[in-house]
Amino acid sequence: MTILASAIYLIEYLGRYDLAAAMIEMIGSFGENAETKLGLALTMMAISYGFGQIVMGVVGDRVPPRFVVFAGLLGAGACNIAVGCATNATLVWILWFLNGLCKAMIWPSLLRQMSCDMSDKGFQAGVMGVSIASNVGIVLVYLAVVPLSILLFSWRLAFWFSGFAEVAAGVVWVLSVRTIPSVGLLKHALRDGAHGAPEPEKKRKPVLPILFAAGIPLLYFVVIAHGLLRDGVTSWMPKLLTDTYDLGNVAAIMSSAILPVFSTVCVIIAGIVYMKLKNEVTSSAIFWGVVVISLGCLTFTIGRSAILTVILLALAMSGIQGINHILTTRVPHRFAYAGIVSTVAGLLNSATYVGAAVSGYGIALYSKAFGWHATVVAWLVAAAAGTLALVLCFARWKRFISRPSEDKTPEN
């Protein structure tokens, strides 16, 4: 299951970040105002993905995850193939909006399937494998798929490659996942047409009281701040480097590959820290500190050295990915006892893309109006706000995770 889920998510990331990686080259193809329109495409995907995560999170707790993930991969693959054939930037942002809706089907149901099929110990190792695979996917996009496509043919080849890979992954998924035995906490959860729905006689626990008892509304804001930074740095680092240091397009794109390399190491560290502390909020606070310090240093050094800028952004991104790994993959598993893993996963992942929606179009406008130094300062402010919101979660989350499962839902 770890191998299958990791492969699925790696390929899904190829079809998610290819636009961000190829954007510099695409601007030259689509002419005037293309930069703003392509920035809008990132925002439209974030909006559709964020909204879709909430809906598909609930759906994923009620419909077989096998088919939800399959449909998401096929739809996302079709959107990528179509972008490779697009003739104007307006069509790209429409297709990228649809791509976000399709991709929203994948993560909540994938996480639910893992909770269903894997033991608790296996799940902890499995989510680390998936997080590492997603970073490998970003490395491949920035270091191989997009640069090689540009050098061999054009940026269009990258979208065709990613799209057909997603379609193939969907077929492999739907044929393979039903062969894996269910041994996890959600072994009675919906896994295929014959098994998995919660037993009819078992009363479904009320969702909202559980979420408020755990402090999820505050964590939602924390994840918004993290999403703004994650997609802001990943998507706009090539443009920052070309504008500030006059790097060529391919060089700037390939320089961005260092981000997921650092992030992969940080995901492993995040897993170790979490297993040591056994507290998601406390663990993620450590990585928020890394983000704040890195961005704080960058505000004083940007413009002096391209290498130093890349290193500081890589450190900041490492902290962000550590936060992402803990809050969006570890936290939902805490709700397995209530059968709402997919709901919580979708809710928190939607927050990531609320932040991404702000960063996609907002950074395009903000950086053009005020410059990249002011943009880095804005990132620092967002990191400080996210850290403060996390601190406010400490007491409530500690109480929640220390209670026995049967006491976590307030009585009506």
Question: Care to describe what's here?
Answer:
The chain has 412 residues and is mainly α. The protein has one domain (2-407): Growth Hormone, Chain: A (Up-down Bundle), CATH 1.20.1250.20. It has 15 helices and no strands. Helix 3 packs antiparallel against helix 5, helix 6 (120-152) packs antiparallel against helix 7 and helix 6 runs antiparallel to helix 11 (258-277). The chain is globular, with a radius of gyration of 20 Å. The relative contact order is 0.16. Residues 188-202 have low confidence and may be disordered.
Give a quick set of tags describing it.
412 residues, Growth Hormone, Chain: A, globular
Calculate the mean pLDDT score and round it.
Answer: 83
How many beta-strand elements? 0
Low-confidence stretches: 188-202
- The number of helical segments is 15
Give the CATH class. Mainly Alpha
Give the gist of this structure.
This protein has 412 residues and is mainly α. It has 15 helices and no strands. 58% of the residues are buried.
Show the helix and strand layout:
Blueprint: H1 2-30, H2 34-60, H3 65-83, H4 89-103, H5 106-117, H6 120-152, H7 156-176, H8 207-214, H9 216-245, H10 249-255, H11 258-277, H12 280-301, H13 306-330, H14 341-370, H15 372-402
